[in-house]
Amino acid sequence: SEDFLKRATGLDPKNAKTWNYLGIVHFKKGKREESIRCTTRALEADPKYGDAHFNLAVLYANGTSDEKKLARTHYQLARDLQVPADPNLEKTLK
Q: What ranges in 1-94 are assigned the alpha helix state H?
């Protein structure tokens, strides 16, 4: 749950997976900015966390043109880190 994950990030603020999961919870609740913030914190904790790069790509994919550039960058980083390709996201990023 969101409360559990918030407590967990307080106890271990360098746990990238916890930040990433909290970002997913926020995304599912429609809290895009909070989701971006949490997912970015995940990458601060572990810059080589491919799933977090992928999630940021998804979050930025339908944004402004600058955000779409960020989406492409994060998607490529995710792919470089062995995250599987996502044809639907690739179409969005073209």
A: 2-11, 16-28, 32-45, 50-61, 65-80, 87-93
